[in-house]
What we know:
With 362 residues, the chain is an alpha/beta fold. The chain has two domains: 5-176, Rossmann fold, CATH 3.40.50; 180-360, Dehydroquinate synthase-like, alpha domain. The protein has 13 helices and eleven strands. The protein has helices at 28-32, 47-63, 82-94, 109-121, 135-141, 179-196, 198-212, 216-236, 251-260, 268-285, 291-303, 316-324, 353-357; strands spanning 5-9, 16-21, 40-46, 67-73, 102-107, 128-132, 146-149, 158-161, 166-170, 335-341, 344-349. β5, α4 (109-121) and β6 form a beta-alpha-beta unit. The longest helix is centred in the middle third of the chain and has 21 residues, at 216-236. The relative contact order is 0.11. Bound molecules: nicotinamide-adenine-dinucleotide (NAD).
Amino acid sequence: MMQVKTLAVDLGDRGYNIVVGCGVLEQIPVYLKPLKLSRRCLLVTNSTVDALYGDRVRRVLHEGGYDVATCCVEDSETAKSLDNASRLYDAALEHGLDRLSAVIALGGGVVGDLAGFVAATYMRGVPFIQLPTTLLAQVDSSVGGKVAVNHPLVKNIIGAFYQPRIVISDISTLKTLPLQELRAGLAEVIKYGVIWDRNFFTYLSKNVSSILSYDQEILQNIIVRSCEIKAEIVEADEKEEGLRMVLNYGHSFGHAVETLGNYEEFRHGEAVAIGMVAAARIAQHLGKISPSEVDMIRDLINSAGLPTVIPSDYSREKIINVLFYDKKNRGRKVTLVLPRKVGQVEIYRVKSISELTCAWEF
Ligand SMILES: NC(=O)c1ccc[n+]([C@@H]2O[C@H](COP(=O)([O-])OP(=O)(O)OC[C@H]3O[C@@H](n4cnc5c(N)ncnc54)[C@H](O)[C@@H]3O)[C@@H](O)[C@H]2O)c1
């Protein structure tokens, strides 16, 4: 029987626990009790996840004495919209949510970001509970407090830093997650190895096939270690004024690739996988990392079944253009996170476009 693991994110009065285990959804009321929430709450999910886990979560909440209303959004990135946020405010008002009522996100990063945005803004902030059901959400989006909706022109541009009160990750929900989605989440897990923890990277290299066969124990280990790393970084820099930027490793080129594919061709994690290799190549050309370390990074990404090259039909010029407009750039300089070796990265201000084109050179 797998043990439930709990880790604390230490952010003073905004601190919270992350619970990772098999079947923990059945225990939700036990975890919510210390939070002293009102009886009424709003469950936010999407049509796919609702069909799989909605009834179970509603039953458990009901048995725990909660009065739950559900708001179910479409299963698409387009669900992260101000229109949907507005629908959720309507539902919150209709159901009579007050300042101590929870908004509960059940689903992947899309549902989590939307529900978190509503929790952050309804009545200037009500308790937010994360029940992540994708690997990406369990290792990344549910932790750290970034919540957002999209503007039709720019993704994630309307948002806030708003920490959840608890994250309850039930690993058994990953059994129904399509393999492509598992792989996409694994990209972010590999990222933690490269930016922070060489031993973890080695562990991932040894266990990649068990991960891809949904081995529950190994999944628990990698989720817990990923959350520990993200928590450590967020604790040091909650609002991304410095260190937290390292979490963007792979995300500059990744974002450009996502944009050129109209957010349809690649999942976020797949684009990040391409971006991690691109950044490693640039680092290699700048003499910051040895070719053998770059091979290690590329090989692990490859063995996870993730893409490693920018599609040849994507215009270099357009990719570079997107890099220049990245909201994370300071003073119009392209800022990249470059690996020095597996387990260590640096923030680098790009000096010329020719440095960026190294991403295409092998
Ligand atoms: N807030 C942050 O810090 C942060 C970090 C990374 C990504 N994000 C955001 O997260 C989003 C991507 O998240 P995602 O990858 O989880 O995508 P997602 O929420 O779209 O989920 C992926 C797919 O899996 C389905 N699904 C979810 N759980 C399932 C389960 N247990 N079984 C079967 N199917 C299931 C969903 O319905 C969806 O079709 C993006 O909007 C991105 O901007 C946010």
